[in-house]
Design goal:
This protein is mainly alpha-helical. The chain is built from three helices and two strands, in the order ααββα.
């Protein structure tokens, strides 16, 4: 059992929930970031105490032309 599993188990016991529920709660914030980026909305996502996650401008050249157009519209304030 690694440290993370131990923490999940301890919190689950303390809170009266299953270990799976605690793991789901802990990982949900990262799923939010991943799903937001996968949706290609290119919104910034702020997680309190962790920081703001956003698409780096240098990485935009690797995106599809449709995504680049969406970014341009967002920056121009036309959407």
């Amino acid at each position: 059992m690694d440290n993370l599993d131990k923490i999940y188990s301890e919190v689950a016991e303390e809170m009266g929930l299953s270990r799976g529920q605690i793991q789901s709660i802990a990982e949900s914030q990262f799923s939010l970031v991943a799903n937001t980026f996968k949706a290609k909305k290119l919104d910034n996502v702020r997680l309190q105490y962790l920081g703001t996650f956003k698409v780096k401008p240098a990485r935009l050249k690797y995106l599809s032309p449709q995504a680049q157009e969406l970014i341009k519209k967002n920056n121009d304030g036309t959407t």
